[in-house]
Amino acid sequence: MAQFRQSKKLNNVLYDIRGPILEEAERMEARGHSILRLNIGNPAPFGFEAPDAIMKDMVRHLHHAQGYSDSRGIYSARTAVVQYYQTQGIMNLDTDKVYLGNGVSEMITLSLQAFCDPGDEILIPTPDYPLWTASVALSGGTPVHYLCDEQNGWNPDIEDMRLKITPNTKGIVIINPNNPTGAVYSRETLQQIVDLAKEHDLILFSDEIYEKITYDGAEMVHTASLADDDVVCLTFSGLSKAYRVAGYRSGWLAITGPTWKAESYVEGIKLLANMRMCANVPAQHAIQTALGGYQSINDLILPGGRLKEQRDLAYRKLNEIDGITCQQAEGALYLFPKLDTEKFGIVDDEQFVLDLLKEQKILVSHGRAFNWVAPDHFRLVTLPDTETLSKALDRLGEFLSGYQQV
Ligand code: PLP
């Protein structure tokens, strides 16, 4: 009998954040265990409600949102994106160069499908948000990882980036603020990357979905604001994180810079956007309201705000555990602690995460799921309230005090 196998183009496509460990957690839940999920950056289940104005906008427009929209997205939302970026120093964006998507995820996959030919190399950070590596692989391109340096606040190692550029390199991915490390890149660092892109005629893909989640006054600089005349830049952002509506699937892609150099590429993006008709229309209506007016996320990230308090507590408690060191996050919703692999005999970080899950019913993500180079990190989501986080980290400490993998 015929076996229907997945296509060979999936051979190098990995997305382990929702992989076998999550399946094991689901099996445990089905057997009645209560699992503390510290594995996905999904604000709503942790009591982070969306701003009322966004909900009202969606509900109010439901009636008018029954049909397909323009495949780039409704005009008012695309204009709101343009106007928002004008306030951020990105001046040369045209409404026609904004594409709304079912979350940033769709626009990442779509933009790489339209771009990569076999052999094309795309520079991606390690560690990364693994959708980038997966999408380059799926598109037939080759992901090439540049190092982010833990000892230097997880900043991109520009020399390593330079060394990895070959005649086949076509683009550089920047994730800022970064998932999983929490790094927020300085203007100087971003300028160096822009200069490198200019020197080698590369496109920049700047994933800025955490742009509004920064702590302790870290300055968010948009890559496109530095690249204006020189480099084609694709900026990705959306409502999932700062506006806490990950389930509505609402994001965008904005293309700036000397777009005359990328006419064919933009046509390709348009073709793929046409083929999927349009993004979820009710959620498109939330964009204008979200970007204008009061930004309630600020209440959560400033001193006394929930997200900041939780990050501070997690950072402090992690560093108190013997055998863990952790850099502080300047942005986003995660910490990426380092494990003393010698002390714990860890050779397989996935096994470590599985052992923690089975013994303490706590689910985190192993570092290599983020294409990190060694089995010595894991990612923790800082979304639970301080009491829950505190208990979870006590349990992690207890677990590690007796842990020996080999
Ligand atoms: N980019 C990064 C860096 C992310 O962390 C995520 C989600 O966690 C996404 C993109 C996808 O976001 P969306 O919900 O808009 O698809």
TrEMBL record:
Family annotation (InterPro entries): Ala_Aminotransferase (IPR051926), Aminotransferase_I/II_large (IPR004839), PyrdxlP-dep_Trfase (IPR015424), PyrdxlP-dep_Trfase_major (IPR015421), PyrdxlP-dep_Trfase_small (IPR015422)
Domain of life from the UniProt record: Bacteria
First and last residue of the signal peptide: none
Keywords of this entry: Aminotransferase, Pyridoxal phosphate, Transferase
Keyword Transferase part of the UniProt annotation: yes
Keyword Ligase in record: no
A Pfam family assignment: Aminotran_1_2
Family (UniProt): Belongs to the class-I pyridoxal-phosphate-dependent aminotransferase family.
Protein name: alanine transaminase
